[in-house]
Specification:
Elements: H1 3-46, E1 50-53, E2 56-60, E3 66-69, E4 73-82, E5 85-87, E6 90-92, E7 94-106, E8 113-119, E9 129-135, E10 138-139, E11 150-156, E12 161-173, E13 175-179, E14 186-196, E15 202-203, E16 212-215, E17 220-230, E18 235-238, H2 245-273, H3 280-300, H4 306-329, H5 335-351, H6 359-377, H7 383-388, E19 410-413, E20 416-419
Parallel strand pairs: 1-13, 4-14
Antiparallel strand pairs: 2-3, 2-8, 4-7, 5-6, 7-12, 8-11, 9-10, 9-12, 13-18, 14-17, 15-18, 16-17, 19-20
């Protein structure tokens, strides 16, 4: 393997890297632009992130001042179900929310008091289905402005209590949060159970950790239970995101040079070990076969299921590269090794991006295994000899006509030069 060929292969690799950079950037721009345009449209059609505030309870005094008080019990049940919506190359983590909150309010004073209850909706302008409010089981029917919330006044005698209940069903996106009443900074007898219809539960930054998590048949039940809690933190759950074709294909495309570099190392090793004459043009077509995988994946992902797109693109690329190398290099080329190498370096490395959290580990293990194999098969090579002479196939070929024999020497005879017999 000459230095000239190594330089030419390096130039081909650099050209392939440039092509992947352009394709990856184009895919990322498509995803970002569509996200910027379609994100607000999805929120307008589906809803905003929901932030449910605890009701504010206050006592009306004779001087029209407010004295804040706490509900004695806070029994809340929330059911979240994912209902993903796709726009362009992006899946949006939309969900449905069923809320049922019951708050027990008690008059601990020795005199009757008028207690004002204010309840804010989790999102202004959202649509609420099966909405109902009641006081001690009696429904309250009144005009409602979702921007201003609900105000209800109850009169309680000494030692009396009342149950204020709110139920509704609505839709949101990305996350759901429950905010404690900032006027009191304290919650008594909290029992908030969130029934998540998904397993991959996560929490918003700075939120209160749950006290218990129970697996169910269709997800998890997460509970926040406390008898007397003082906190400024919210309760928040993040809706798990679905695999987004746009960002996923961009990451796979930007990682493609690493896959090609490992495969070029494999082909170069075959060149040395098996003595197969592999021309830089062969490397160029191999790079083009790898590029075909990412090109097909990028433009099919928005139209076909991402897993099916991956299978079609990977199969096409493996067939292209393997059949080309077998046809171009003949029977000496170990095509089974080439198939195994492409499945390992291109397909496995790329598919690791589907597996959340283990992409780096997969690539690291694959790199170490590759290094170990390369070290093992090349351990006895004389590298000075490899880089100072051509391979067996780069030497004179059998079909090259032999050089003509040198002219016979002339022998002197009687002063005359005659051919020697």
């Amino acid at each position: 393997m000459s230095l000239k060929r190594i330089v030419m292969v390096g130039v081909i690799f650099a050209i392939a890297c440039g092509a992947w950079w352009i394709l990856g950037t184009a895919t990322a721009v498509r995803s970002a632009s569509r996200f910027g345009k379609l994100g607000p449209q999805v929120e307008n059609l589906w809803g905003d992130p929901l932030v449910q505030k605890a009701p504010s309870v206050s006592v009306e005094t004779v001087r029209s001042a407010q004295r804040w008080m706490m509900p004695q019990k806070n029994d809340i049940t929330v059911r979240l179900e994912t209902d993903y919506r796709k726009k362009g190359l992006i899946w949006y983590p939309t969900y449905t929310c069923a809320f049922d909150g019951t708050y027990t309010i008690a008059n601990t004073e020795a005199i009757a008091q008028k207690i004002r209850i204010h309840f804010d909706f989790p999102a202004q302008g959202a649509t609420y289905d099966n909405f109902a409010i009641s006081v001690d089981g009696a429904s309250v029917l009144a005009p409602i402005d979702t921007a201003k919330g609900i105000d209800e006044t109850v009169e309680l005698g000494p030692g009396e209590s009342a149950e204020f209940r709110v139920t509704y069903r609505t839709r949101g996106i990305r996350d759901w949060r429950y905010k404690m009443d900032p006027n009191v900074g304290r919650v008594q007898n909290l029992n908030l159970v969130l029934q998540a219809g998904f397993d991959d539960i996560d929490y918003t930054g700075g939120s209160l950790s749950p006290m218990s998590i129970v697996k169910t048949d269709d997800g998890v039940d997460v509970a926040w239970i406390a008898s007397d809690l003082i906190t400024s933190e919210d309760i928040g759950v993040v809706i798990p995101e679905k695999l987004n074709p746009g960002p996923l294909t961009s990451r796979i495309t930007f990682f493609a040079p690493v896959c090609l570099l490992f495969f070029f190392m494999l082909v170069g090793t075959i060149n040395i070990i098996y003595g197969v004459n592999i021309h830089p043009m062969h490397y160029l077509f191999v790079a083009a076969g790898f590029f075909a995988f990412h090109l097909l994946l990028s433009y099919m992902a928005g139209l076909v299921n991402i897993h099916l797109s991956f299978i079609i693109a990977a199969t096409t690329s493996v067939v292209l590269v393997t059949t080309y190398l077998s046809a171009a290099l003949g029977g000496k080329f170990p095509w089974k090794v080439a198939i195994a190498g492409q499945l390992f370096f291109l397909v496995l490395f790329s598919y690791s991006f589907f597996l959340k959290g283990i992409t780096g580990l997969t690539v690291a293990i694959g790199s170490v295994v590759t290094l170990a194999i390369m070290m093992r098969v090349t351990a006895r090579l004389d590298w000075d000899d490899v880089f100072s002479r051509p391979t067996r196939s780069e030497r004179q070929r059998p079909d090259t006509p032999p050089a003509p024999p040198p002219p016979p020497p002339m022998a002197p005879e009687n002063g005359l030069q005659v051919p020697a017999v």
